[in-house]
Amino acid sequence: EVRVVESGGGLVQAGGSLRLSCVVSGFTFDDFAIGWFRQAPGKEREGVSCISGVDGSSTYVDSVKGRFTISSDNAKSTVYLQMNRLKPEDTAVYYCSPGCGAYWGQGIQVTVSP
Q1: Which of 30, 55, 102, 108 has a CA 20 to 30 Å removed from the CA of 42?
Q2: Mean pLDDT of all residues in the chain?
Q3: Residue 106: per-residue pLDDT
Q4: 101: β partners
């Protein structure tokens, strides 16, 4: 059974930073990708970033490139999303997703005030 525990969300002013963490059990980091998705009110869920467990390569949605950084610590079964220069439009529920769409955490709220 894949278990996902997300942490690090909260309320921050525009221009600020947050770091999301996701601890995963029952999932082999070395063989698969893992990433973050988000869903804003009234919008569809979108992929934010994914990182490959095989070679460490990563992808980002255009709106966060240069501001967000994904990383993983395979030994700790943890993936991080460092979010800098946050904007109000980044406000959403963020979901950790082992397999980048295969499994889901319960989500964590990130709110960016103007």
Answers
A1: 102
A2: 95
A3: 96
A4: none
Return the DSSP state at 32: S
Radius of gyration of the chain, Cα coordinates, nearest whole angstrom: 13
d(CA 97, CA 30): 15
Cα 26-81-44 angle, rounded to 5 deg: 85
Amino acid at 42: G
How many angstroms separate the CA atoms of 84 and 87, rounded? 9
Using one digit for the tens of pLDDT, what is the confidence trace for 58-112? 999 999 999 999 999 988 999 999 999 999 999 999 999 999 999 999 999 999 9
Residue type, 13: Q
User: What is the secondary structure of 80-112 as a DSSP string?
Assistant: EEEE-S--GGG-EEEEEEETTTTS----EEEEE
